[in-house]
Design a protein that fits this description.
The chain is α/β, with parallel strands linked by helices. It contains 13 helices and 14 strands. Helix content is 35%, strand content 17%. Strands 1-2-3-4-9-10-11-12-13-14 form a 10-stranded mixed sheet, sandwiched between helices. Strands 5-6 form a two-stranded antiparallel ribbon. A two-stranded antiparallel sheet has the order 7-8. The chain binds S-adenosyl-L-homocysteine and iron/sulfur cluster (SF4).
């Protein structure tokens, strides 16, 4: 199969257009079709000549992820299950902005995207790694999740505005319904897979999402979450773009973290902390420490002081997330009371802390769960190659 055009850098496309003797504005037109208009076929690119479209089709393929199922309603968290060109299944989760919390427009959303099919990191609590690792996502498949969600959103029927009447009784026709041009204004790379283990595809994908010729999403609106791949954190610290960083900590001592996250053996807390310090120093940006609360595993109050010390040392905020139950795994979320006690204790140590009221745990929103369920139903069996 030909490589996907959305996996090519702008420079590669520019070089090919130059070789074909095409003027540079043609490339801008093509990029407009690929990213702003989310084209799913060459035929729609009406301002490119038929001959050029044929050349393009001979050189590259053009795919967007195909929607298998969607769970959730338009005013709550919605989960998309996609099928890729080779049949692999991945997930993205669309989370509406909460105007009360963030003062954001209600048609603004955060999209949580995947970077791999499965995950090789084997964190004990996580559904994404349960069936092992299959492959890295291509650049086009990372970017494609945003484009496919926006295509889907644009295709949804919109409520017509009511017609009104002027004071003298003249009818005023209803304005045309407003189709949201872009609904995704925040991206969190927190879906299936370890993004830092697919760094070579992740970074060009994020650059395309950020670029003015691409999707135009601000770098500060894009957060990469990692289980702690130290060399890549150091590399990201030197990247010119200001992407945000979140660390999946889930344990504030090596004993507790090592029990649930195998990566802690390769990069123990001392090394992870040093890399985060380097990142904060280079970027001058606050990082987030993600901490899932799992009953009887990492919710002991003995974790509070080491966690507070880490947060202070890194000038980081702490995001506590009550564990989302995964079928087939023994782990449970602590009681609401236990979660609140843990939060209060951190607060008393003057840590900037939030306790997330998990959105969407009723629709299998924790990463990897919907895919796992669908694979079982469709009889895909193990993903192990
Ligand atoms: N591999 C990366 C990004 C994907 S996981 C990472 O680990 O950071 C995104 C987040 O979801 C991580 O913080 C992960 O620990 C968390 N997570 C995984 N399973 C979960 C579950 N069952 N309940 C709540 N959070 C979970
Ligand atoms: Fe992979 Fe992240 Fe899940 Fe760990 S938490 S298994 S790194 S997706």
């Amino acid at each position: 199969m030909l490589p996907d055009i959305r996996s090519q850098t702008r420079e590669t496309l520019a070089a090919q257009f130059a070789a074909w003797g095409q003027p540079s504005y043609r490339l801008d037109q093509l990029l407009g079709w690929l990213y702003a208009r989310r084209a799913a076929s060459w035929d729609v690119m009406s301002n490119l000549s038929k001959a050029l479209r044929e050349e393009l089709a001979k050189t590259w393929s053009l795919h967007l992820p195909e929607l298998v199922t969607k769970q959730g309603s338009s005013d709550t968290t919605q989960k998309f299950l996609w099928r890729l060109a080779d049949g692999a299944l991945i997930e993205s989760v669309l989370i509406p902005a909460n105007p009360a919390l963030y003062g954001d427009d209600s048609d603004r959303h955060t999209l949580c995207i995947s970077t791999q099919v499965g995950c090789a990191y084997g964190c004990r609590f996580c559904a994404s790694g349960l069936d092992g690792f299959k492959r890295n996502l291509e650049i086009s498949e990372i970017v494609g999740q945003i484009l496919a969600v926006e295509r889907w959103a644009a295709s949804q029927p919109v409520e017509p505005a009511p017609a009104t009447t002027a004071a003298d009784g003249t009818p005023i026709p209803a304005p045309p319904p407003r189709v949201p041009e872009r609904i995704v204004n925040n991206i969190v790379v927190m879906g299936m897979g370890e993004p830092m283990a697919n760094y070579d595809h992740l970074m060009p994908a994020l650059r395309a999402l950020n670029a003015t010729w691409g999707c135009g999403i601000g770098a500060r609106k894009i957060t990469i979450s990692t289980s702690g791949v130290v060399p890549r954190i150091r590399e990201l610290a030197r990247d010119p773009l200001q992407f945000r960083l979140a660390i999946s900590l889930h344990g504030a001592t090596d004993a507790v973290r090592g029990q649930i996250m195998p990566i802690n053996r390769k990069y123990p807390l001392a090394e992870l902390t040093a890399a985060c310090e380097d990142y904060v120093k280079q970027k001058g940006k606050m990082i987030t420490l993600e901490y899932i609360l799992i009953a009887g595993v990492n919710d002991g109050l003995d974790q509070v002081l080491p966690l507070a010390n880490l947060a202070h040392r890194l000038h980081a905020k702490v995001n506590l997330i009550p564990y989302n139950k995964v079928e087939d795994l023994p782990w449970e979320r602590p009681s609401d009371e236990a979660c609140e006690t843990f939060t209060d204790q951190l607060d008393q140590h003057e840590v900037v802390v939030t306790l997330r009221r998990e959105k969407g745990h009723d629709i299998d929103a924790a990463c990897g769960q919907l895919r796992l369920k669908t694979e079982k139903q469709e009889g895909y069996g193990s993903l192990e190659a």
